[in-house]
Structure formats: C-alpha cells, structure tokens
Design a protein that fits this description.
Layout: H1 2-20, H2 39-42, E1 64-69, E2 76-81, E3 86-95, E4 107-117, E5 121-122, E6 127-130, E7 132-136, E8 142-146, E9 149-153, E10 166-169, H3 180-190, E11 204-207, E12 212-218, H4 224-228, H5 232-256, H6 260-288, H7 291-318, H8 325-350
Parallel strand pairs: 4-9
Antiparallel strand pairs: 1-2, 1-12, 2-3, 3-4, 4-7, 5-6, 6-10, 8-9, 10-11, 11-12
Amino acid sequence: MKNARLLSLLLLCALLLTACGGTEAPIQSTSEPQTAPSPAAETPASDPYAAAEPAFDFAQLEGWTFLFTSGAGGWGTEMTVAADGSFTGRFHDSEMGDITDEHPSGVLILSEFTGHFTQPEPVNDYSFSLQIADIQFPQGDRQEIADGTLYEYTSSAYGLDGAEELLLYLPGAPIAELPEMYLNWVRSGFYLYEEGAAGLPGYGLYNVTEENGFSSYRADALPEPTAAAFDPALALELAIDEAQTEAVPLEEQLAQAATQADMNEAAAALYQVWDGALNRFWQTLREHLPEEEMQALTKEQLAWIAEKEAAVQAAQDAVDGGTMAALAGATAGTEATKARMNELLDSFRANG
C-alpha cells in the first residue's frame, strides 16, 4: 500500500515537470527593438556618377590680369578670368602712318571679347592644359571715325587667335623648364631680367600653337614706380630692341636673296618691321603723354611722314622704276624710319 502511494506520487511529479518544460507564449515588448547599425548605414556607399573634384579651381585667378603685349606696349591684349572659367578682355593696336584727310590722327584697331575656358587638366606639378570653349566679339567688325581717328573694331585678339591648346603655368613654375618662345614674350612683363629669378612671379598662359605668351599681374601688387611713371625714352629703346631682333633674319634673307623678287620681298618685310615698331610706340605715347604734348608731337610726326614718303618716291624714281623700284623704295623707307626712331630717342633723352 505504501509502495503504491509512493509510485502515484512519483508519477504526479513527472507529469508536473513535463508541463513546466512546454513552450511558453512570447512576451510582447511595448518598445521598438534596439538593433545595432550596420556598417553600410554608418558609411554611405560612393556614387559612381558623382563629379570628381576639379584639378584646378579658376577662383585662384581672382584679382589677376593676364597681359600679352609687345616690348614697347604699343599693342596688347588684356584679360581677366572669373571663378566659373569665363573670361573677358580687350585688344588694341594702331597704325599711326595710315592717315587720310578724314582721319589725320591715324588708325586704332580695337576689340572687346568674352568667352569660356574648358576645365584645366594637369600636365605636371606646375602646368595645366586647357582650351577655349567659346569666344565672342560683341562689337563685331565695323569702323567709325571720331576726333580725327579711324576706329576699326575687329573679331580678333592677339595671343588668343589660333589657339588650339593653352598651357596655364602656376606661380613659381621653374623658368628653366619653360619654352623659350614663351619666355621671350614675358621677360619684360614678369621682370625676369633680374638676376636670380628661378620661378614665375605670377600665373602664365601660353598659346602653344601660335607660341604666344601672357604674363600676369595683380593691380594691388604693382610696384609704385611701375604703376606711376612712364619713361618715353625707355619705351622707345624697347621698341628699337624689339625691331632689331625681329629684323635680323630678314636682313640675312635680303643678303642671301638670289633673285630680284626675293630681294623685294625681304626688303618689304624689313620695312614693315620698323614701320610697325614705330606705330606701336606712337600708340604708347598717346596712352601716356599729356594731350597738349601729344598734339605737338603729332603735328611734327605728320610732317615727317610726308618727308619719308617723298624720300621713298625719290628712291624709286632714281632707278627709273622697274623691278628694282620696290627694293629701292622699301630700303629708303626703312632707313628713314630707323633714323626717325633714333631722332626721337635722342630728343626724349635730352628732355629727361
């Protein structure tokens, strides 16, 4: 009996233990589940279509003016570049000897332009390659006469014409590694004649196709003497030096010419070099000298032009025209122009 009671008790406990081991219903939480953030949520995936950072920021050019000019400053192109790569500028040239009764003060050739550059691509540590995406000349091609001067507006800008590739040089670009043709244009603008200059003091722009070079400057950083003073004697010396350098190969061509036609062509080109140098220098005077002084010089210059033309005609008459007349006239014109430039130089030096 006792054993039967004990067996019943053991069976009851087994049944209770089996019930306790059953599956219980889950307890519902009243708060949101807390889950650890995945690595993807912490670091956004890169966008394969996102624009890459530009290699060069045009905003760095703010405050800089690019300048392409002759050594005497008689003709030139000035340009500034905005942060979005757009540019604006102005070109000017002159022909003092091109006069008529309607425009006795000569000819001024002008243009204003706007456009955009492409995004520069790096070439090396100090230069970038870019192109002209577009360029416009709002004034178009036209002429007008005002105050005795013929103004010719043109769709052209020296230094940018014919550009297929431009190289942008950074300040500090090593001078020893830059093209010699570029340096020939910018030595005076950058004052690279100073001893010890190893790198460009500003930004440079090189028209690779045409081998034209822009220097640059900041108006707020110009030395006081450079910004304030104008020395006509120094400007004329630069014009003469420039013409002499340009004339050397033409003089050699003239000396080696085998035919009269070749001699005529070389002599005409030589005359154009000196005449152009004088015209550009004259434009420089017009930009810097007081009006009264310039008027007196202009009157004197017009008288000299008449004398020069008479000398050219006399030289042609002396050979009775024919095939040698062109050579004789160009030679007389060249000599008269060179003499006039040296006469003006002596006068400016004497007057201080």
